[in-house]
């Protein structure tokens, strides 16, 4: 995750996620149409928390359908508060994975059976390590896996790099790839044309799935706090939390 300069408001400012007219035209897709019966689901998250922001609802659905699940956390998120004495990298390297574990528990994930790989790569520096990223990700994929990761044009350098590296790994291993916009939704409406709308599909979430996802996001105390002493705003800004209330998640097929 990365800091965002997003203004306050119940529904937030006019952004793609809440104002683009194309949103109403996105066709629905069932989870069973995305992942064949018995297939393993792999989520590749650039930073701790991205698995919830990108697909916290989908994780719940696939768990309920009893698909084998694997989460790959590429970084430990320790560079999210540069210059902070309250949240130094040494503290975040411990806290961020703990927050992710609590968030997954709140989602209802079976932590006893969830295979969780931690990459240990440095965040904010992934663009220069794409070949190594691809090799690392490919090591944990199997042919026939269905892989979800951040969109390669999401607008965050780490998200984009992980998207490209995962695509390369999936092509090598012959796994199926779906991409998930995260920060791209918070661009101004005038940038809506950059979203590949023909590839977009909505997966409906029920009220309880949305509630669990919101509860999980609030496990990330370090991302909700920021550091006022150095003028660092919360990474999880109010408008992003508002987007988490939407009764669907969008997948690029």
UniProtKB/TrEMBL annotation:
SUPFAM superfamilies cross-referenced by the UniProt entry: LmbE-like
Name assigned to this protein: PIG-L family deacetylase
């Amino acid at each position: 995750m990365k800091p965002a300069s997003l203004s306050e408001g119940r529904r937030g400012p006019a952004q793609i996620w809440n104002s683009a007219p194309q949103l109403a035209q996105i066709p629905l897709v069932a989870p069973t149409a995305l992942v064949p019966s018995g297939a393993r689901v792999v989520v590749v998250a650039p930073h701790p928390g991205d698995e919830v922001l990108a697909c916290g609802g989908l994780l719940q659905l696939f768990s309920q359908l009893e698909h084998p699940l694997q989460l790959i956390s590429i970084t430990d998120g320790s560079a999210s508060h540069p210059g902070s004495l309250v949240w130094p990298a040494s503290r975040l390297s411990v806290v961020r994975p703990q927050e992710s574990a609590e968030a997954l528990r709140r989602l209802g994930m079976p932590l006893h059976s969830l295979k969780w790989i931690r990459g240990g790569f440095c965040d904010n520096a992934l663009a220069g390590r794409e070949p190594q990223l691809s090799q690392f990700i490919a090591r944990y994929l199997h042919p026939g896996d269905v892989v979800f990761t951040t969109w390669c044009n999401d607008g965050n350098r780490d998200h984009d790099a992980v998207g490209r590296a995962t695509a390369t790994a999936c092509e090598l291993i012959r796994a199926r790839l779906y991409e998930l916009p995260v920060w791209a939704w918070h661009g101004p409406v005038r940038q809506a044309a950059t979203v590949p709308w023909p590839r977009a599909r909505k997966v409906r979430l029920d009220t309880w799935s949305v509630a669990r996802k919101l509860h999980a996001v609030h496990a990330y105390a370090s991302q909700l706090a920021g550091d006022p002493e150095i003028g660092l705003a919360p990474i999880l800004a109010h408008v992003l939390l508002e987007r988490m209330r939407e009764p669907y998640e969008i997948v690029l097929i």
